[in-house]
Structure formats: structure tokens, C-alpha cells
Design goal:
Shape: globular
Strand order of the largest sheet: 3-2-1-6-5-4
Order of helices and strands: HEEEHEEEEEEEEEHEEE
Length: about 180
């Protein structure tokens, strides 16, 4: 089970991430390897040939070479490309912290792959409504068209913190306003 990180740890992770460069997967165009099945289910669990990948470090490594082309996802290295079936979004938000400075707040999200994402103009929060269930489907952009589903418990915590104006619930982060839904 994941233990929530404190704000100091999340900010420290974010600072380390900003210094670390991800592999340049956007520059690589290797041939497609077709005899491998990779999948990420709606809970953010990764599978290789229908077997769960239980090593967190392996999943974290794979997440750094994940790329989205059009609507398809791929693991990309300089020598091969493997298609990944993604049920909802490739990442899941499992926790968040709020940093307040000078009457402004910034929300930092933690993904299941240990990425820290600052809710901002660049990394926007979007809430779609599922057609069949009418339930909210919230997600945030992590990087380069790769998104993270905001887990239900995290979303409910955000709703508890939300402000209401003109029949809408919203939160603020990095001087931006993000709509969570209508009341």
C-alpha cells in the first residue's frame, strides 16, 4: 500500500524531477515489436503478457519511456516500440499536497509511478462526465499528452476543499481556476 508523502517530500521529489531529464522518446522511431502484450488497467496496474508487473521500480522505468501517438500508447526505446493497451489513463493520482505562499495556493499531485505534477496552466485538470453512469471522470496532464486519472478518494478530497460560485465547484492552484463540477 502506498503511504502518503508529506509536502516537504513531494516538493523535494518535484525539484529532483525538474533536474532529471526523461529519455527523448519523441525522437525515436524504431520498428514495432508485435509479439508482446502490454496493458495498463484502469487502476494503473501494469501487465506484461497478461501477468502483473509487481516490481514498482520496473513500472517506474517503463513509465519514463511511455509515449502517446495519436490515441495509441507505446513503450519506446531506440531499438523497438511496443504497443500498450491503456484502459483509461496510463497514470493514477494517488495523493496530493497543498503549498500556500502569500495567500496563493499550489496543488501538487503524486502519481502511482512517483511522478509529482503541479496543477497549473501547463498541467491542467479536466473533469469529463461519463455518458452511461453520469459520474465525474477527472484527470490531469502529467507530460506530453500523457494523463493521470485522479482516484476517487483524491477527487472527493478536492471536492471537500472546493469553493462554490455561480453553481460551480472550483479549486485554485498556481493562480489558475479549475472547475470540478456543477452543484
Amino acid at each position: 500500500m502506498n503511504t502518503p508523502l508529506g509536502l516537504t517530500e513531494i516538493i523535494s521529489k518535484l525539484e529532483k524531477q525538474e533536474g532529471k531529464r526523461l529519455p527523448p522518446v519523441h525522437l525515436w522511431n524504431p520498428p514495432l515489436c508485435e509479439n508482446v502484450e502490454m496493458k495498463i488497467n484502469s487502476k494503473g496496474d501494469w501487465f506484461f503478457n497478461n501477468s502483473p508487473i509487481n516490481r514498482k521500480k520496473m513500472v517506474q522505468l517503463f513509465s519514463t519511456v511511455l509515449r502517446r501517438d495519436e490515441e495509441d500508447y507505446f513503450l519506446v526505446t531506440p531499438v523497438e516500440k511496443i504497443k500498450v493497451v491503456v484502459e483509461k489513463k496510463p497514470f493514477v493520482i494517488i495523493d496530493f499536497e497543498i503549498k500556500e505562499e502569500e495567500k496563493k495556493q499550489t496543488i501538487f499531485f503524486l502519481t502511482n509511478t512517483n511522478d509529482v505534477v503541479k496543477l497549473s496552466k501547463t498541467n491542467k485538470l479536466t473533469v469529463e462526465i461519463e455518458k452511461n453512469t453520469k459520474e465525474p471522470f477527472p484527470y490531469i496532464e502529467v507530460r506530453d499528452r500523457l494523463e493521470a486519472l485522479i482516484s476517487r478518494n483524491v477527487f472527493y478530497k478536492l471536492v471537500d476543499l472546493a469553493k462554490e460560485e455561480k453553481g460551480r465547484l472550483y479549486i485554485e492552484s498556481d493562480s489558475q481556476t479549475f472547475i470540478l463540477g456543477e452543484t
